[in-house]
Amino acid sequence: MFFIGQYHDCIDEKSRLRVPAGFRELLSDGAFVVQGFDRNLWVLTAAAFQEIYQRFMTLNVTDPAVRLLLRMFLGSASPLEMDKAGRVIVPKNLRAFANLDNEAVLVGQGNYFEVWSPAHWQEQETQLQDVAANAQRFASLNLVAI
């Protein structure tokens, strides 16, 4: 199974975000939330987080870009625990980074899902709906229909 689809939900006064039912099973063995690259958050399974961590540990820490990446990813990481209602608490610092107030958009990305503020997600959707630009953006990726 994969994280796919798009869901809109509320964040309550206790910073709890409800995880869609289809995503909950994938997070049953644990999860982490980290700062994303686009003013969003990434929620990863414990296994996916561990795999990325192992890759990071092979990088050359004398490279300033590597150190920044480690600080961004590992320094922002927080374990998530799901309650019986399928909610997780989004840490305050990550909510602030992603500009999350009372609403969130969850977007499946296969091995992880993203959490966006509605305003930032709208900016992404505007780009995604630009058909002419997409043809140029993605031409070099050599995507093949199966």
Count of all domains: 1
- What is the alpha-carbon Rg in Å? 16 Å
Strand-pairing-aware structural class: alpha+beta
- The CATH class label is Alpha Beta
Uncertain residue ranges: none
- Spatial order of the strands forming the largest sheet: 1-7-8-4-3-5
Strand content: 15-25%
How many angstroms does the end-to-end distance come to? Answer: 19 Å
- The CATH level-2 architecture is identified as 3-Layer(aba) Sandwich
State the order of secondary-structure elements, H for helix, E for strand. EEHEEHHEEHEEHH
Q: What does the largest sheet look like?
A: 6 strands, antiparallel
Which topology does CATH recognise?
Chemotaxis protein chec
**Total beta strand runs:** 8
Mean pLDDT reading: 96
> With helices defined by DSSP (H or I, 4 residues minimum), what is the helix count?
6
Helix content: 25-40%
Anisotropy-based shape: globular
CATH superfamily: Transcriptional regulator MraZ domain
Characterization of the model:
The protein has one domain: Transcriptional regulator MraZ domain (Chemotaxis protein chec, 3-Layer(aba) Sandwich). The protein is an alpha+beta fold. The strands form 2 sheets. Strands 1-7-8-4-3-5 form a 6-stranded antiparallel sheet. The chain has a two-stranded antiparallel sheet with strand order 2-6. The protein is 36% helix and 24% strand. The protein has helices at residues 21-24, 46-56, 64-76, 92-97, 118-128, 131-138; strands at 6-10, 16-18, 31-35, 41-45, 78-80, 87-89, 103-108, 112-116. The mean pLDDT is 96. It has 6 helices and 8 strands. The protein is globular, with a radius of gyration of 16 Å.
